[in-house]
Amino acid sequence: MQEAATVEAEIEEAVEAYVDLTVQETLLRAAIDVYRDRNQGPILMRAKDLFAELTDSAYTGLRADINERGETILIAEDPLRGSLEIDALSDGTVDSLYLALRLAVVQEHNARHEPIPFVADDLLLNLDNKRAQAALRTLAAIAASSQVLLFTHHAHMADLARIAVPPPILIEHNLSRRSTMQETAE
Q1: Is 118 helix (H, G, I), strand (E, B) or coil?
Q2: pTM as predicted
Q3: Nearest 5 degrees, angle CA 125-CA 141-CA 176?
Q4: Which of 27, 88, 119, 148 is surrounded by the most beta carbons within 10 Å?
Q5: Rounded distance, CA 72 to CA 87, Å?
Q6: What's the CA gap between 101 and 52, in Å, rounded?
Q7: Residues of the chain above pLDDT 90, percent
């Protein structure tokens, strides 16, 4: 009985130590999250908002984290599925994430220096129509302070742009019509 009581006391001590360490780990992780949120760089903060816009609010956040190998990674916050690494995202969502990062860099640069244009070619092909329109609205908003040039040879993207972007901002150039008109004139 004395041996059983000794083992029981050892188990009790081990459980208490485990609970203490688990609580400490939980508090430390929460403190790290608060610190990270408060000290994210301006580009990541801009990208977070842009990512939410570009995904039509399907994703609510974006943050940097550290994986088990000690490498910095990006985490997308999904209101239903929680924190997701890039590998768990669809191709369209990854494209939206990278677009958010690119636009954040351009916006951050333009806030401090002479504005540079944003030029892209067939940027929205992996996005469904809803997200493509959200991306076009975001690009239109950026066009208020910087030149945005979006090239595409997909007619449906031009159709979506006509729906999502107001006429004073959207200026279309259709090269195939011009070459047809030039051939007709000759």
Answers
A1: strand
A2: 0.70
A3: 45
A4: 148
A5: 14
A6: 12
A7: 38
